[in-house]
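A quick aside before the break. I want you to see a complete sequence-to-structure record at least once, exactly as it would be stored in a machine-readable document. Don't worry about memorizing anything.
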Amino acid sequence: MSDRLAIGVLGTGIMGAAMARNLARAGHSVTAWNRTRAKAEPLAADGVRIVGAAAEAVEGADVVLTMLHDGAAVLDAMGRAASGLRPGALWMQSTTVGLEDVTALAELAAAHGLVFFDCPVLGTRAPAEAGKLTVLAAGPAEHWAELVPVWDAVGALTVRTGDDGASGAATRLKLVANSWVLAATNAAGEALALSHALGVDPQQFLDLIAGGPLDMGYLHAKSALILGDGLSPASFAVTTAAKDARLIAETGARHGVRLDVAAASAERFERAAAQGHGDQDMAAAYYASFAPGTEPKHS
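That is the input. The structure line, written in tokens, reads:
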């Protein structure tokens, strides 16, 4: 297999579109499918071929990349793509899914003769667009080198978590990392909400902890989005965060661990979505602290 690959991308949301664009810019032959075709069409300007059928997107592909909403969406898309799948193709499954989903997807890969790689990524819109994602990868060692050109095009770092994609080793690490990210997002929102309720200038709070052990760049980044009315376009949408938080809480329960913060995070994200913030950045969970119609205005 040469370094110039034929790649079929299924799913062109925030992450999938950025990954497809960077793969095309790296010189790969990229064909993309999205359930709503109009969302994929802008990629044509970057040399990505847009098709209306999932099977057409993967036909003859060396690599199939899935970046969709959840495990059910991946199963649906791969079912649509089944007639175009080529035995021996590498499947880079990058959707954040549950461990049970990984098992089902690995079985689907085996049924179609695909080489399965469990490959979720860490990062949001900006690093995705810059090709600076962190790729978490689990898959057979003998095929590792074949996917390096793909990982180099979309990411700045690849973390190898194991030689068996079906083990879900990469997904396990991704769920742990996301549990921290989502908790930090909601903690930032609650601190700002409390500052508003108590009449404290949020900048006074940020200055108070600046440079100390309680400070973190992520807090400042999410606070700036909230206070500067920068929640759209989303770097990582509230609806997706809600799905991930619920998935993390349920995964913990299945493994005998009660994750109260993850469960509460899921409720906050879901409440924010119900208030009309679902398509905004996940920092918009801030508004879940307020009754509908009483949300503060920031500019």
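Two observations worth writing down. The longest helix spans residues 169-197. The domain at 172-289 is CATH 1.10.1040.10 (N-(1-d-carboxylethyl)-l-norvaline Dehydrogenase; domain 2). We'll return to this after the break.
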